[in-house]
Protein backbone atom coordinates (compact mmCIF):
# COMPACT_ATOMS: atom_id res chain seq x y z
CA UNK A 1 0.00 0.00 0.00
CA UNK A 2 1.27 3.56 0.52
CA UNK A 3 5.02 4.09 0.75
CA UNK A 4 7.23 6.88 2.10
CA UNK A 5 10.76 7.95 1.35
CA UNK A 6 12.54 11.14 2.41
CA UNK A 7 16.13 12.36 2.22
CA UNK A 8 18.32 15.18 3.48
CA UNK A 9 21.80 15.25 1.95
CA UNK A 10 24.61 17.27 0.50
CA UNK A 11 23.78 15.96 -2.97
CA UNK A 12 20.75 16.03 -5.21
CA UNK A 13 18.16 13.89 -3.42
CA UNK A 14 15.76 13.64 -6.37
CA UNK A 15 17.36 10.41 -7.74
CA UNK A 16 17.32 8.97 -4.20
CA UNK A 17 13.61 9.71 -3.85
CA UNK A 18 12.76 8.33 -7.29
CA UNK A 19 14.78 5.15 -6.79
CA UNK A 20 13.24 4.72 -3.35
CA UNK A 21 9.73 5.08 -4.77
CA UNK A 22 10.51 2.55 -7.49
CA UNK A 23 11.58 0.09 -4.83
CA UNK A 24 8.29 0.70 -3.04
CA UNK A 25 6.23 0.04 -6.16
CA UNK A 26 5.80 -3.61 -5.22
CA UNK A 27 3.59 -2.64 -2.30
CA UNK A 28 0.86 -1.54 -4.71
CA UNK A 29 -0.11 2.09 -5.45
CA UNK A 30 -2.04 4.20 -7.89
CA UNK A 31 -0.29 7.59 -7.79
CA UNK A 32 3.09 8.96 -6.83
CA UNK A 33 4.70 12.28 -6.02
CA UNK A 34 7.67 14.11 -4.59
CA UNK A 35 8.14 17.52 -2.98
CA UNK A 36 11.55 19.12 -2.62
CA UNK A 37 12.84 22.23 -0.94
CA UNK A 38 14.66 24.13 -3.66
CA UNK A 39 16.20 27.25 -2.20
CA UNK A 40 13.35 28.92 -0.34
CA UNK A 41 10.69 27.29 -2.45
CA UNK A 42 8.68 24.04 -2.23
CA UNK A 43 8.39 22.34 -5.59
CA UNK A 44 6.12 19.38 -6.13
CA UNK A 45 5.28 16.94 -8.87
CA UNK A 46 2.49 14.33 -8.63
CA UNK A 47 1.09 11.91 -11.15
CA UNK A 48 -1.50 9.19 -11.19
CA UNK A 49 -0.13 5.94 -12.63
CA UNK A 50 3.45 4.75 -12.45
CA UNK A 51 6.44 6.33 -10.72
CA UNK A 52 8.17 6.46 -14.13
CA UNK A 53 5.60 9.02 -15.33
CA UNK A 54 6.17 11.16 -12.27
CA UNK A 55 9.93 10.80 -12.74
CA UNK A 56 9.67 12.06 -16.32
CA UNK A 57 7.66 15.07 -15.15
CA UNK A 58 10.22 15.86 -12.42
CA UNK A 59 12.98 15.59 -15.04
CA UNK A 60 11.22 18.03 -17.35
CA UNK A 61 10.84 20.55 -14.57
CA UNK A 62 14.56 20.25 -13.73
CA UNK A 63 14.09 19.29 -10.08
CA UNK A 64 17.33 19.37 -8.10
CA UNK A 65 17.39 19.68 -4.31
CA UNK A 66 19.12 18.65 -1.09
CA UNK A 67 15.92 17.93 0.86
CA UNK A 68 12.69 16.24 -0.11
CA UNK A 69 9.99 13.65 0.50
CA UNK A 70 8.26 11.19 -1.80
CA UNK A 71 5.21 8.97 -1.68
CA UNK A 72 3.35 6.20 -3.45
CA UNK A 73 -0.38 6.36 -2.69
CA UNK A 74 -2.95 3.58 -2.66
CA UNK A 75 -6.24 5.44 -2.62
CA UNK A 76 -8.45 5.21 0.47
CA UNK A 77 -9.96 8.67 1.16
CA UNK A 78 -10.72 10.21 -2.21
CA UNK A 79 -10.28 8.80 -5.70
CA UNK A 80 -7.15 8.27 -7.76
CA UNK A 81 -6.49 11.87 -8.81
CA UNK A 82 -3.47 14.12 -8.92
CA UNK A 83 -5.08 16.41 -6.33
CA UNK A 84 -5.38 13.52 -3.88
CA UNK A 85 -1.82 12.28 -4.48
CA UNK A 86 0.84 13.10 -1.89
CA UNK A 87 2.79 15.18 -0.94
CA UNK A 88 0.19 17.60 0.39
CA UNK A 89 1.22 21.19 0.92
CA UNK A 90 -0.02 23.93 3.20
CA UNK A 91 1.72 27.32 2.97
CA UNK A 92 5.17 25.92 2.30
CA UNK A 93 4.87 22.80 4.50
CA UNK A 94 4.94 19.57 2.47
CA UNK A 95 4.19 16.17 3.91
CA UNK A 96 3.61 12.55 3.04
CA UNK A 97 1.46 10.20 5.07
CA UNK A 98 0.75 6.48 5.36
CA UNK A 99 -2.23 5.34 7.40
CA UNK A 100 -5.69 6.67 8.09
CA UNK A 101 -6.72 9.64 10.22
CA UNK A 102 -10.01 8.69 11.80
CA UNK A 103 -10.94 12.15 13.10
CA UNK A 104 -10.17 13.93 9.81
CA UNK A 105 -13.74 15.17 9.33
CA UNK A 106 -13.82 16.87 12.70
CA UNK A 107 -10.35 18.39 12.06
CA UNK A 108 -11.41 19.50 8.59
CA UNK A 109 -14.37 21.38 10.05
CA UNK A 110 -12.22 23.01 12.67
CA UNK A 111 -9.58 24.04 10.11
CA UNK A 112 -12.26 25.42 7.78
CA UNK A 113 -13.41 27.66 10.58
CA UNK A 114 -9.82 28.80 10.98
CA UNK A 115 -9.85 29.84 7.33
CA UNK A 116 -8.11 26.90 5.66
CA UNK A 117 -9.27 25.75 2.24
CA UNK A 118 -9.02 22.17 1.04
CA UNK A 119 -7.85 21.06 -2.39
CA UNK A 120 -8.23 17.31 -1.91
CA UNK A 121 -10.61 14.77 -0.45
CA UNK A 122 -7.87 13.13 1.60
CA UNK A 123 -7.59 12.74 5.34
CA UNK A 124 -3.92 13.73 4.94
CA UNK A 125 -4.52 17.34 3.95
CA UNK A 126 -5.78 18.14 7.45
CA UNK A 127 -2.33 17.21 8.80
CA UNK A 128 -0.63 19.66 6.45
CA UNK A 129 -2.95 22.47 7.56
CA UNK A 130 -2.59 21.55 11.22
CA UNK A 131 1.19 21.72 10.81
CA UNK A 132 0.91 25.19 9.32
CA UNK A 133 -1.51 26.26 12.04
CA UNK A 134 1.00 25.36 14.76
CA UNK A 135 3.96 26.84 12.87
CA UNK A 136 2.03 30.11 12.63
CA UNK A 137 1.73 30.09 16.40
CA UNK A 138 5.53 30.26 16.65
CA UNK A 139 6.45 26.59 17.01
CA UNK A 140 9.41 25.28 15.08
CA UNK A 141 8.93 22.34 12.69
CA UNK A 142 9.52 19.64 15.30
CA UNK A 143 7.32 21.26 17.95
CA UNK A 144 4.59 21.84 15.36
CA UNK A 145 4.70 18.15 14.47
CA UNK A 146 4.59 17.12 18.11
CA UNK A 147 1.55 19.38 18.66
CA UNK A 148 -0.09 18.15 15.46
CA UNK A 149 0.16 14.42 16.13
CA UNK A 150 -1.50 14.91 19.50
CA UNK A 151 -4.59 16.06 17.61
CA UNK A 152 -4.74 12.99 15.42
CA UNK A 153 -6.72 9.82 16.03
CA UNK A 154 -5.82 6.87 13.85
CA UNK A 155 -2.68 5.55 12.25
CA UNK A 156 0.14 7.46 10.65
CA UNK A 157 3.68 7.46 9.43
CA UNK A 158 4.59 11.02 8.47
CA UNK A 159 7.55 12.80 6.90
CA UNK A 160 7.45 16.58 6.75
CA UNK A 161 9.61 19.32 5.20
CA UNK A 162 9.14 23.08 5.16
CA UNK A 163 10.53 25.86 3.00
CA UNK A 164 10.99 27.89 6.20
CA UNK A 165 13.43 25.31 7.59
CA UNK A 166 15.47 23.94 4.68
CA UNK A 167 18.05 22.29 6.94
CA UNK A 168 15.83 19.65 8.50
CA UNK A 169 13.11 17.10 8.06
CA UNK A 170 10.79 15.75 10.77
CA UNK A 171 8.81 12.54 10.97
CA UNK A 172 6.43 10.64 13.24
CA UNK A 173 5.08 7.13 13.65
CA UNK A 174 1.89 5.68 15.14
CA UNK A 175 0.43 2.42 13.91
CA UNK A 176 2.36 2.40 10.62
CA UNK A 177 6.01 1.45 10.22
CA UNK A 178 8.63 4.16 9.75
CA UNK A 179 12.39 3.97 9.95
CA UNK A 180 15.33 6.30 9.75
CA UNK A 181 18.35 5.46 7.60
CA UNK A 182 21.71 6.76 8.80
CA UNK A 183 24.16 7.79 6.09
CA UNK A 184 27.50 9.60 5.99
CA UNK A 185 26.60 13.28 6.08
CA UNK A 186 23.09 12.41 4.91
CA UNK A 187 20.03 10.85 6.47
CA UNK A 188 16.83 9.25 5.24
CA UNK A 189 13.37 8.27 6.29
CA UNK A 190 11.34 5.42 4.80
CA UNK A 191 8.36 3.21 5.46
CA UNK A 192 10.27 0.17 4.26
CA UNK A 193 14.00 -0.49 4.33
CA UNK A 194 14.02 -1.44 0.64
CA UNK A 195 13.41 2.23 -0.24
CA UNK A 196 16.77 3.37 1.12
CA UNK A 197 18.91 0.25 1.00
CA UNK A 198 20.86 1.66 -1.94
CA UNK A 199 22.02 4.48 0.35
CA UNK A 200 22.48 2.85 3.77
CA UNK A 201 21.99 -0.33 5.78
CA UNK A 202 22.06 1.34 9.18
CA UNK A 203 18.53 1.89 10.38
CA UNK A 204 16.58 3.00 13.43
CA UNK A 205 13.04 1.59 13.66
CA UNK A 206 10.83 4.24 15.22
CA UNK A 207 8.56 3.08 18.02
CA UNK A 208 4.87 3.84 18.43
CA UNK A 209 4.35 7.51 19.28
CA UNK A 210 7.90 8.54 18.34
CA UNK A 211 8.73 11.75 16.52
CA UNK A 212 12.17 12.51 15.09
CA UNK A 213 14.21 15.31 13.61
CA UNK A 214 16.83 14.72 10.92
CA UNK A 215 19.51 17.07 9.65
CA UNK A 216 22.31 16.01 7.32
CA UNK A 217 24.56 15.17 10.24
CA UNK A 218 22.24 14.41 13.15
CA UNK A 219 19.19 12.43 14.15
CA UNK A 220 17.20 13.03 17.33
CA UNK A 221 14.33 10.76 18.34
CA UNK A 222 11.62 11.69 20.88
CA UNK A 223 9.11 9.38 22.53
CA UNK A 224 5.36 9.94 22.83
CA UNK A 225 5.98 12.32 25.78
CA UNK A 226 8.38 14.36 23.62
CA UNK A 227 11.35 13.19 25.67
CA UNK A 228 14.65 12.69 23.86
CA UNK A 229 15.36 8.94 23.65
CA UNK A 230 18.05 6.64 22.27
CA UNK A 231 16.82 4.01 19.85
CA UNK A 232 18.93 1.06 18.82
CA UNK A 233 20.70 1.17 15.45
CA UNK A 234 20.20 -2.02 13.41
CA UNK A 235 22.16 -3.29 10.45
CA UNK A 236 19.57 -4.36 7.89
CA UNK A 237 20.17 -7.73 6.26
CA UNK A 238 18.00 -6.92 3.24
CA UNK A 239 20.31 -7.32 0.26
CA UNK A 240 20.19 -5.29 -2.93
CA UNK A 241 20.25 -8.58 -4.87
CA UNK A 242 17.00 -9.62 -3.21
CA UNK A 243 15.39 -6.48 -4.62
CA UNK A 244 16.70 -7.03 -8.16
CA UNK A 245 15.12 -9.30 -10.75
CA UNK A 246 18.34 -10.98 -11.90
CA UNK A 247 17.80 -13.48 -14.73
CA UNK A 248 14.07 -13.91 -14.01
CA UNK A 249 11.15 -12.45 -15.89
CA UNK A 250 9.15 -11.61 -12.81
CA UNK A 251 9.74 -11.35 -9.08
CA UNK A 252 7.12 -14.03 -8.56
CA UNK A 253 9.09 -16.46 -10.69
CA UNK A 254 12.29 -15.53 -8.88
CA UNK A 255 10.62 -15.97 -5.50
CA UNK A 256 9.14 -19.35 -6.46
CA UNK A 257 12.65 -20.48 -7.36
CA UNK A 258 14.15 -19.08 -4.18
CA UNK A 259 12.08 -21.45 -2.05
CA UNK A 260 14.69 -24.19 -1.46
CA UNK A 261 17.06 -21.51 -0.07
CA UNK A 262 14.34 -19.66 1.86
CA UNK A 263 13.13 -22.88 3.50
CA UNK A 264 16.68 -24.03 4.25
CA UNK A 265 17.36 -20.69 5.98
CA UNK A 266 14.11 -20.89 7.95
CA UNK A 267 14.85 -24.38 9.29
CA UNK A 268 18.61 -23.90 9.67
CA UNK A 269 18.62 -23.58 13.46
CA UNK A 270 16.48 -26.71 13.86
CA UNK A 271 18.62 -28.74 11.48
CA UNK A 272 21.69 -27.70 13.49
CA UNK A 273 20.27 -27.92 17.01
CA UNK A 274 16.99 -29.87 16.92
CA UNK A 275 13.47 -28.66 17.70
CA UNK A 276 14.17 -26.08 20.40
CA UNK A 277 11.65 -23.68 21.96
CA UNK A 278 14.24 -20.89 21.76
CA UNK A 279 13.38 -20.60 18.07
CA UNK A 280 10.35 -18.63 19.27
CA UNK A 281 12.08 -16.49 21.89
CA UNK A 282 14.04 -16.70 25.11
CA UNK A 283 11.06 -17.49 27.37
CA UNK A 284 9.19 -19.60 24.83
CA UNK A 285 9.65 -22.85 26.73
CA UNK A 286 7.68 -21.67 29.77
CA UNK A 287 4.95 -20.12 27.62
CA UNK A 288 4.52 -23.00 25.18
CA UNK A 289 4.50 -25.57 27.97
CA UNK A 290 1.77 -23.68 29.75
CA UNK A 291 -0.69 -23.30 26.84
CA UNK A 292 -3.56 -25.75 26.44
CA UNK A 293 -4.53 -24.95 22.87
CA UNK A 294 -3.85 -22.71 19.90
CA UNK A 295 -5.94 -20.03 18.18
CA UNK A 296 -4.50 -18.95 14.82
CA UNK A 297 -5.45 -15.59 13.27
CA UNK A 298 -4.42 -14.50 9.78
CA UNK A 299 -5.62 -13.33 6.35
CA UNK A 300 -5.34 -14.63 2.79
CA UNK A 301 -2.44 -16.92 2.07
CA UNK A 302 -1.26 -16.67 5.67
CA UNK A 303 -4.67 -17.96 6.74
CA UNK A 304 -4.17 -21.02 4.53
CA UNK A 305 -0.81 -21.59 6.23
CA UNK A 306 -2.76 -21.51 9.50
CA UNK A 307 -5.31 -23.99 8.17
CA UNK A 308 -2.52 -26.41 7.31
CA UNK A 309 -0.97 -25.94 10.75
CA UNK A 310 -4.25 -26.87 12.38
CA UNK A 311 -3.99 -30.38 10.91
CA UNK A 312 -0.42 -30.65 12.20
CA UNK A 313 -1.03 -29.20 15.66
CA UNK A 314 -4.03 -31.40 16.44
CA UNK A 315 -2.50 -34.57 14.97
CA UNK A 316 1.10 -34.20 16.13
CA UNK A 317 1.06 -31.93 19.18
CA UNK A 318 -2.32 -33.22 20.39
CA UNK A 319 -3.59 -29.73 21.22
CA UNK A 320 -6.90 -28.22 20.14
CA UNK A 321 -6.37 -25.65 17.41
CA UNK A 322 -8.77 -23.20 15.76
CA UNK A 323 -7.99 -21.00 12.79
CA UNK A 324 -9.93 -17.88 11.93
CA UNK A 325 -9.76 -15.13 9.34
CA UNK A 326 -8.58 -12.11 11.28
CA UNK A 327 -11.14 -9.70 9.83
CA UNK A 328 -13.95 -11.97 11.05
CA UNK A 329 -12.52 -12.71 14.47
CA UNK A 330 -11.96 -9.06 15.33
CA UNK A 331 -15.65 -8.20 15.04
CA UNK A 332 -17.32 -11.14 16.73
CA UNK A 333 -17.95 -11.86 20.38
CA UNK A 334 -15.36 -14.63 20.42
CA UNK A 335 -15.10 -17.13 23.25
CA UNK A 336 -11.67 -16.58 24.74
CA UNK A 337 -9.70 -19.20 26.56
CA UNK A 338 -6.73 -17.39 28.10
CA UNK A 339 -4.89 -20.71 28.23
CA UNK A 340 -4.85 -20.81 24.43
CA UNK A 341 -1.89 -19.37 22.56
CA UNK A 342 -2.77 -16.74 19.97
CA UNK A 343 -0.68 -17.29 16.84
CA UNK A 344 -0.77 -14.55 14.22
CA UNK A 345 0.69 -15.27 10.81
CA UNK A 346 1.60 -12.39 8.51
CA UNK A 347 4.36 -12.16 5.94
CA UNK A 348 4.35 -8.35 6.06
CA UNK A 349 3.71 -7.97 9.78
CA UNK A 350 1.59 -4.95 8.90
CA UNK A 351 -1.81 -6.36 7.92
CA UNK A 352 -4.29 -4.18 9.74
CA UNK A 353 -6.95 -6.86 10.20
CA UNK A 354 -4.43 -9.26 11.73
CA UNK A 355 -3.00 -6.54 13.96
CA UNK A 356 -6.46 -5.56 15.16
CA UNK A 357 -7.41 -9.22 15.73
CA UNK A 358 -4.30 -9.58 17.89
CA UNK A 359 -5.25 -6.51 19.94
CA UNK A 360 -8.79 -7.82 20.27
CA UNK A 361 -7.56 -11.23 21.45
CA UNK A 362 -5.48 -9.51 24.11
CA UNK A 363 -8.48 -7.44 25.17
CA UNK A 364 -10.42 -10.69 25.61
CA UNK A 365 -7.83 -11.89 28.09
CA UNK A 366 -5.38 -13.87 25.96
CA UNK A 367 -1.99 -13.41 27.56
CA UNK A 368 0.22 -15.53 25.35
CA UNK A 369 0.82 -14.43 21.77
CA UNK A 370 3.19 -15.61 19.08
CA UNK A 371 3.81 -14.05 15.69
CA UNK A 372 5.14 -15.76 12.57
CA UNK A 373 6.38 -13.03 10.29
CA UNK A 374 8.84 -12.33 7.49
CA UNK A 375 9.60 -8.66 8.20
CA UNK A 376 11.81 -7.89 11.19
CA UNK A 377 10.61 -5.14 13.50
CA UNK A 378 7.22 -4.87 11.84
CA UNK A 379 4.14 -4.04 13.88
CA UNK A 380 2.64 -7.49 14.54
CA UNK A 381 5.79 -9.20 15.88
CA UNK A 382 6.51 -6.11 17.96
CA UNK A 383 3.12 -6.47 19.58
CA UNK A 384 3.61 -10.20 20.28
CA UNK A 385 5.17 -11.99 23.22
CA UNK A 386 6.95 -14.61 21.12
CA UNK A 387 8.22 -14.30 17.55
CA UNK A 388 9.52 -16.56 14.86
CA UNK A 389 10.90 -14.75 11.84
CA UNK A 390 10.74 -16.71 8.63
CA UNK A 391 13.84 -16.15 6.57
CA UNK A 392 12.32 -15.89 3.14
CA UNK A 393 14.08 -12.61 2.33
CA UNK A 394 12.26 -9.71 0.71
CA UNK A 395 9.16 -10.82 -1.17
CA UNK A 396 8.33 -8.32 -3.91
CA UNK A 397 5.63 -10.10 -5.94
CA UNK A 398 2.19 -9.27 -4.59
CA UNK A 399 1.25 -12.94 -4.74
CA UNK A 400 2.87 -14.59 -1.78
CA UNK A 401 4.99 -17.66 -2.58
CA UNK A 402 8.17 -18.16 -0.58
CA UNK A 403 6.61 -16.36 2.38
CA UNK A 404 3.89 -19.05 2.43
CA UNK A 405 6.16 -22.09 2.29
CA UNK A 406 8.48 -20.63 4.93
CA UNK A 407 5.44 -19.93 7.14
CA UNK A 408 4.57 -23.61 6.77
CA UNK A 409 8.12 -24.58 7.69
CA UNK A 410 7.96 -22.34 10.79
CA UNK A 411 4.53 -23.69 11.78
CA UNK A 412 5.75 -27.26 11.45
CA UNK A 413 8.64 -26.46 13.78
CA UNK A 414 6.18 -24.91 16.22
CA UNK A 415 4.05 -28.05 16.05
CA UNK A 416 6.93 -30.33 16.93
CA UNK A 417 8.16 -28.04 19.72
CA UNK A 418 4.63 -27.99 21.19
CA UNK A 419 4.38 -31.76 20.81
CA UNK A 420 7.68 -32.24 22.64
CA UNK A 421 6.84 -29.86 25.46
CA UNK A 422 3.46 -31.54 25.96
CA UNK A 423 4.97 -35.01 25.93
CA UNK A 424 3.17 -36.11 22.79
CA UNK A 425 6.20 -36.99 20.69
CA UNK A 426 8.68 -39.81 21.23
CA UNK A 427 12.38 -39.37 20.56
CA UNK A 428 12.04 -41.63 17.57
CA UNK A 429 9.22 -39.54 16.11
CA UNK A 430 11.20 -36.38 16.70
CA UNK A 431 14.19 -37.84 14.86
CA UNK A 432 11.85 -38.78 12.00
CA UNK A 433 10.48 -35.23 11.74
CA UNK A 434 14.00 -33.85 11.72
CA UNK A 435 14.91 -36.20 8.90
CA UNK A 436 11.86 -35.09 6.90
CA UNK A 437 12.83 -31.45 7.40
CA UNK A 438 16.36 -32.23 6.25
CA UNK A 439 15.02 -33.55 2.95
CA UNK A 440 12.64 -30.66 2.46
CA UNK A 441 14.74 -28.11 0.50
CA UNK A 442 15.92 -30.84 -1.90
CA UNK A 443 12.37 -32.09 -2.49
CA UNK A 444 11.20 -28.54 -3.16
CA UNK A 445 13.97 -28.24 -5.73
CA UNK A 446 12.76 -31.44 -7.41
CA UNK A 447 9.24 -30.04 -7.55
CA UNK A 448 10.58 -26.90 -9.21
CA UNK A 449 12.05 -29.06 -11.95
CA UNK A 450 8.47 -29.80 -13.04
CA UNK A 451 8.15 -26.26 -14.41
CA UNK A 452 8.31 -27.16 -18.14
CA UNK A 453 5.49 -29.73 -17.81
CA UNK A 454 3.37 -27.34 -15.78
CA UNK A 455 3.94 -24.54 -18.32
CA UNK A 456 2.40 -26.82 -20.95
CA UNK A 457 -0.68 -27.33 -18.77
CA UNK A 458 -0.91 -23.57 -18.28
CA UNK A 459 -1.47 -23.10 -22.03
CA UNK A 460 -4.68 -25.06 -21.62
CA UNK A 461 -5.79 -23.07 -18.59
CA UNK A 462 -5.15 -19.67 -20.15
CA UNK A 463 -8.36 -19.53 -22.27
CA UNK A 464 -10.58 -20.73 -19.43
CA UNK A 465 -12.76 -18.49 -17.31
CA UNK A 466 -13.19 -20.84 -14.31
CA UNK A 467 -11.27 -23.57 -12.56
CA UNK A 468 -11.91 -25.86 -9.62
CA UNK A 469 -9.27 -27.03 -7.16
CA UNK A 470 -9.75 -30.10 -4.97
CA UNK A 471 -7.78 -31.50 -2.07
CA UNK A 472 -8.44 -33.43 1.11
CA UNK A 473 -7.06 -33.27 4.62
CA UNK A 474 -3.68 -31.54 4.82
CA UNK A 475 -3.93 -30.72 1.13
CA UNK A 476 -7.27 -28.95 1.21
CA UNK A 477 -5.58 -25.67 2.29
CA UNK A 478 -3.12 -26.15 -0.58
CA UNK A 479 -6.06 -26.41 -3.00
CA UNK A 480 -7.34 -23.13 -1.52
CA UNK A 481 -3.92 -21.56 -1.98
CA UNK A 482 -3.73 -22.82 -5.58
CA UNK A 483 -7.12 -21.28 -6.36
CA UNK A 484 -6.15 -17.99 -4.69
CA UNK A 485 -2.89 -17.80 -6.65
CA UNK A 486 -4.71 -18.41 -9.94
CA UNK A 487 -7.35 -15.77 -9.14
CA UNK A 488 -4.87 -13.17 -8.00
CA UNK A 489 -2.57 -13.13 -10.97
CA UNK A 490 -4.43 -14.61 -13.94
CA UNK A 491 -7.89 -13.23 -13.03
CA UNK A 492 -9.43 -16.64 -13.77
CA UNK A 493 -12.24 -17.36 -11.37
CA UNK A 494 -11.12 -20.30 -9.24
CA UNK A 495 -12.74 -22.11 -6.33
CA UNK A 496 -11.33 -24.72 -4.00
CA UNK A 497 -13.23 -27.43 -2.18
CA UNK A 498 -12.44 -30.38 0.00
CA UNK A 499 -12.84 -33.16 -2.58
CA UNK A 500 -15.41 -34.93 -0.40
CA UNK A 501 -17.65 -31.85 -0.53
CA UNK A 502 -17.94 -31.92 -4.33
CA UNK A 503 -21.13 -33.94 -4.39
CA UNK A 504 -22.79 -31.54 -1.95
CA UNK A 505 -23.02 -28.76 -4.53
CA UNK A 506 -20.01 -27.76 -6.63
CA UNK A 507 -20.36 -30.86 -8.82
CA UNK A 508 -23.14 -28.93 -10.60
CA UNK A 509 -20.43 -26.66 -12.04
CA UNK A 510 -18.49 -29.47 -13.67
CA UNK A 511 -18.62 -29.81 -17.44
CA UNK A 512 -16.10 -30.26 -20.24
CA UNK A 513 -15.12 -26.58 -19.97
CA UNK A 514 -14.19 -26.65 -16.32
CA UNK A 515 -10.60 -27.74 -15.60
CA UNK A 516 -10.40 -29.48 -12.23
CA UNK A 517 -7.05 -29.45 -10.47
CA UNK A 518 -6.64 -32.21 -7.92
CA UNK A 519 -3.94 -32.39 -5.29
CA UNK A 520 -3.71 -36.10 -4.72
CA UNK A 521 -0.58 -37.16 -2.88
CA UNK A 522 0.07 -40.73 -1.92
CA UNK A 523 -1.44 -40.51 1.56
CA UNK A 524 -4.19 -42.36 3.36
CA UNK A 525 -6.88 -40.29 1.63
CA UNK A 526 -5.71 -41.09 -1.91
CA UNK A 527 -8.32 -43.77 -2.59
CA UNK A 528 -11.06 -41.39 -1.38
CA UNK A 529 -9.74 -38.66 -3.67
CA UNK A 530 -9.73 -41.10 -6.58
CA UNK A 531 -13.43 -41.77 -6.01
CA UNK A 532 -14.11 -38.04 -6.02
CA UNK A 533 -12.21 -37.79 -9.29
CA UNK A 534 -14.49 -40.42 -10.79
CA UNK A 535 -17.42 -38.19 -9.94
CA UNK A 536 -15.81 -35.45 -12.03
CA UNK A 537 -14.92 -37.70 -14.96
CA UNK A 538 -18.44 -39.14 -15.08
CA UNK A 539 -19.69 -35.58 -15.75
CA UNK A 540 -17.18 -34.93 -18.53
CA UNK A 541 -14.84 -32.80 -16.38
CA UNK A 542 -11.12 -32.72 -17.29
CA UNK A 543 -8.76 -33.55 -14.45
CA UNK A 544 -5.28 -32.15 -13.87
CA UNK A 545 -3.76 -34.19 -11.09
CA UNK A 546 -0.69 -33.48 -8.98
CA UNK A 547 0.41 -36.65 -7.27
CA UNK A 548 3.63 -38.25 -6.01
CA UNK A 549 6.18 -40.36 -7.84
CA UNK A 550 5.25 -43.43 -5.82
CA UNK A 551 1.46 -43.30 -6.13
CA UNK A 552 -0.39 -45.74 -8.30
CA UNK A 553 -1.92 -43.44 -10.89
CA UNK A 554 -2.10 -43.55 -14.62
CA UNK A 555 -3.02 -41.03 -17.28
CA UNK A 556 -6.15 -41.71 -19.28
CA UNK A 557 -8.49 -39.72 -21.43
CA UNK A 558 -9.37 -36.53 -19.60
CA UNK A 559 -6.98 -37.35 -16.75
CA UNK A 560 -3.59 -35.61 -16.88
CA UNK A 561 -0.99 -36.40 -14.25
CA UNK A 562 2.15 -34.66 -13.04
CA UNK A 563 4.22 -36.37 -10.38
CA UNK A 564 6.12 -34.54 -7.66
CA UNK A 565 9.03 -36.43 -6.00
CA UNK A 566 8.46 -39.28 -3.55
CA UNK A 567 5.70 -38.70 -1.01
CA UNK A 568 7.02 -36.21 1.53
CA UNK A 569 4.98 -37.51 4.46
CA UNK A 570 3.73 -34.91 6.83
CA UNK A 571 5.54 -32.14 4.91
CA UNK A 572 3.79 -33.02 1.66
CA UNK A 573 1.67 -29.81 1.66
CA UNK A 574 4.86 -27.78 1.25
CA UNK A 575 5.96 -29.83 -1.76
CA UNK A 576 2.51 -29.71 -3.36
CA UNK A 577 2.40 -25.94 -3.08
CA UNK A 578 5.13 -25.58 -5.71
CA UNK A 579 3.15 -26.97 -8.69
CA UNK A 580 0.08 -24.85 -7.95
CA UNK A 581 2.26 -21.73 -7.73
CA UNK A 582 3.89 -22.59 -11.07
CA UNK A 583 0.54 -23.31 -12.67
CA UNK A 584 -0.80 -19.89 -11.63
CA UNK A 585 2.40 -18.16 -12.73
CA UNK A 586 2.51 -19.71 -16.21
CA UNK A 587 -1.22 -19.26 -16.76
CA UNK A 588 -0.87 -15.57 -15.93
CA UNK A 589 2.13 -15.37 -18.24
CA UNK A 590 0.12 -16.90 -21.07
CA UNK A 591 -2.70 -14.43 -20.43
CA UNK A 592 -0.29 -11.48 -20.35
CA UNK A 593 -1.40 -10.07 -16.99
CA UNK A 594 0.78 -7.95 -14.72
CA UNK A 595 2.10 -10.87 -12.66
CA UNK A 596 3.95 -8.95 -9.97
CA UNK A 597 1.41 -6.17 -9.59
CA UNK A 598 -2.03 -7.65 -10.17
CA UNK A 599 -4.86 -5.16 -10.51
CA UNK A 600 -6.52 -3.83 -7.35
CA UNK A 601 -4.14 -5.66 -4.97
CA UNK A 602 -1.42 -4.45 -2.64
CA UNK A 603 1.42 -6.25 -0.92
CA UNK A 604 0.75 -4.94 2.57
CA UNK A 605 -2.90 -4.44 3.36
CA UNK A 606 -2.83 -1.69 5.95
CA UNK A 607 -6.49 -0.70 5.64
CA UNK A 608 -9.70 -2.49 6.62
C1 LIG B 1 -1.26 -13.59 -1.00
O1 LIG B 1 -0.88 -13.96 -2.25
C2 LIG B 1 -2.02 -12.36 -0.91
N1 LIG B 1 -1.41 -11.28 -1.58
C3 LIG B 1 -2.75 -12.04 0.37
O2 LIG B 1 -3.77 -12.96 0.51
C4 LIG B 1 -1.94 -12.01 1.68
O3 LIG B 1 -1.52 -13.29 2.02
C5 LIG B 1 -2.80 -11.40 2.80
O4 LIG B 1 -3.12 -10.08 2.46
C6 LIG B 1 -2.13 -11.44 4.15
O5 LIG B 1 -0.94 -10.72 4.14
P1 LIG B 1 0.12 -10.87 5.29
O6 LIG B 1 0.65 -12.25 5.25
O7 LIG B 1 1.17 -9.85 4.97
O8 LIG B 1 -0.58 -10.57 6.59
TrEMBL record:
Q: Which cellular components does GO assign to this protein?
A: cytosol
Q: What is its EC number?
A: 2.6.1.16
Q: Which processes are annotated in GO (biological process)? A: amino sugar biosynthetic process; carbohydrate metabolic process; fructose 6-phosphate metabolic process; protein N-linked glycosylation; UDP-N-acetylglucosamine metabolic process
| One example GO MF annotation | glutamine-fructose-6-phosphate transaminase (isomerizing) activity
What positions does UniProt annotate as the active site of this protein?
A: 2 (nucleophile), 603 (for fru-6p isomerization activity)
User: Which residues does the UniProt record annotate as the domain SIS?
Assistant: 284-424, 457-598
Instruction: Establish whether keyword Repeat is in the entry.
Output: yes
Quaternary structure per UniProt? Homodimer.
Name of the protein this chain belongs to: Glutamine--fructose-6-phosphate aminotransferase [isomerizing]
Q: Which organism is it from?
A: Pseudoxanthomonas wuyuanensis
